[in-house]
Amino acid sequence: MKGLLSALVLLGIFGFVADPSARAQDKIRYYDRAKKMEVTADRVTVQEETPAQITYKVGSRTEKVSAADVVEVTYKVPPALGPDYRKPGNKEEKARQAAVDGKEDERKKLTEETIKEYEELLPKLKEAKSLQRDAEYKMVRFMAWAAEDDPAQVKPAIAAGQKFLKDNSDAWQITSVAKTLAQLQATSGDLAEAQKTYAWLADQPVAPEIKQECDLLVVKALIDNNKHSDAEAKLKELKKALPADDPQAQRVEVYLAGCEAARGNTQDAEKQLEGIIQKASDPEVKALAYNTLGDCNRKKNTPEALENALWNYLWVDVLYHQDKQEHAHALYYLSKLFDQVKKDPTRAEECRKRLVEDKQFAGLEYQRRAMKDEK
Asked: Which residue has the higher pLDDT, 159 or 364?
C-alpha cells in the first residue's frame, strides 16, 4: 500500500522475477493428515496456488498440499521490498503479544496501526502477486479483529473481505476469507448474506471437504444466531441426503443434538452425543461431539457438570485436536474452566496463551474471543 515500484525496477535492478516458478525458498506450514500433526515444508519453491491446493517443488520432487490443510505460507521476499514488507508483520506480532499480555488498549492501538500499514504496503506489491494477496489476506483478518472492538468497523471489514474474494477467487486463501466474511455477516445479523457467501464458496474449485463443510457452516451460523428451528430443519434435509456411515452424517447428528440441548433437552442431547462418540472413528467428528457435549455440560452450570465439561474439552485438546477450529473451541473453554473448576489459574493461562500465540488459530473465532477477553 505505500508507493509503487514498477516491474522494470523490480526486474532490472533487484533481480526479482514475478514468474512463480522462479521464486526461491518459500516455506509452507500445514497439517499433515497422514502423520496427524502440523509440519513445515521448508526451503521450497511454490509453483502454483489454487483454491484447492498448493503445488511446490522441494529439490527435484513436486509435491501438493490441500489448501484446506495450509496454516501459513511464508514467501521469499525480494530484497527491495523486505523492509516495507516486514513492517506490518512486525507490528502484527506486537499486537498479538499485547493480547497475550492482556494489554487491551495497546492491542487495539497496534491493531489499527497494523491495518494501516498493510493498506500502505499493498500498492508496492503489484508486481509480486502472491505477496500482495497474502498481505491483503492478513489485512482482512486484522480488520475482522478490529470489528470485534468497534461495531463501526464491521462494514469496512465486510467490504474488504468481499473485495478479496472478487479480486482473488483463484487464491488458496479464499476458504479462510469466505468463512471470516460469512461470520462477520452473520454477526451483523445478515444471515441471508452469510448463506450466500457459503454458497459461493461451495461453488468454487475448493477441496471436496470444504464443499461438504459449507452446508454445516450455514447451520452453525443459524445456531450461533439462536435460529435453532431453522438450523434443525436444514439439518434434517442434509441427513436425508447422506449415507448413515458418512462422517458428514455423524456431524449432522452432533448438530441435531446441539439443537436438542438448545430446546432444554440436555439429558437427551447428552445421551445422543455419548452414543456418537462411542461409534465414531473420525477424530474430527469425535472432537465436534466432545465439544458439543462440553457445551451442554456448561449450560447445566452445576459443579459436577462443569467438571464434566472440562474433561470433555480436555479430550479434544489431548487426543482429538486435528481440526484446528474444534481445538480452538476446546482451548478457549479450558482457559476458563481450569480456573473456575480446578482453581488452577496457571493451567488456565497456559491454555489461553496457546490459543492466542499459535498461528494455526490465526483469525479463528475463538482466538479472537480469547484476545478480546480481559486477562
From this structure: 159
Residue type, 208: P
Topology annotation, domain 237-375:
1.25.40
Class of the CATH domain delimited by 1-14+25-206? mainly alpha
Residue of 174, 164, 184, 180 lying closest to 207 (CA atoms): 174
Residue 90's contacts (CB-CB under 8 Å, 6 or more residues apart) are: none
CA distances from 98 to 110, 157, 222, 368, 374 (A): 8, 22, 33, 13, 12
Cell of 128: 509480486
Task: With a cut of 90, say whether residue 326 has pLDDT above it.
Answer: yes
| Sequence-distant (≥ 6) Cβ neighbours of residue 350 within 8 angstroms | none
- Beta-strand (E) ranges in the chain? 26-32, 37-49, 53-58, 61-66, 70-74
The rounded distance, in Å, linking the Cα atoms of 332 and 115 is 25
pLDDT tens-place string over residues 104-159: 889 889 999 999 999 999 999 998 999 999 999 999 998 998 888 788 899 999 99
Long-range contacts of 201-204 (CB under 8 A, 24+ apart): 201/174, 201/175, 204/51, 204/169, 204/174
Assess whether pLDDT exceeds 50 at residue 281. Answer: yes
Q: Residue ranges of the domains in the chain?
A: 1-14+25-206, 237-375
DSSP 164-206: HHHH-TTSTTHHHHHHHHHHHHHHTT-HHHHHHHHHHHHTSS-
Would 1-14+25-206 and 237-375 be classified into the same CATH topology? yes
Sheet holding 70-74, edge to edge: 61-66, 53-58, 37-49, 26-32, 70-74
The confidence band for 3, taking pLDDT boundaries of 50, 70 and 90, is very low
Residue 227 has pLDDT above 80, yes or no: yes
**DSSP-assigned states of every residue in 307-352:** HHHHHHHHHHHHT---SHHHHHHHHHHHHHHHHHTT--HHHHHHHH
The pLDDT of residue 24? 53
- The percentage of the chain sitting over the pLDDT mark of 70, rounded to a whole number, equals 93
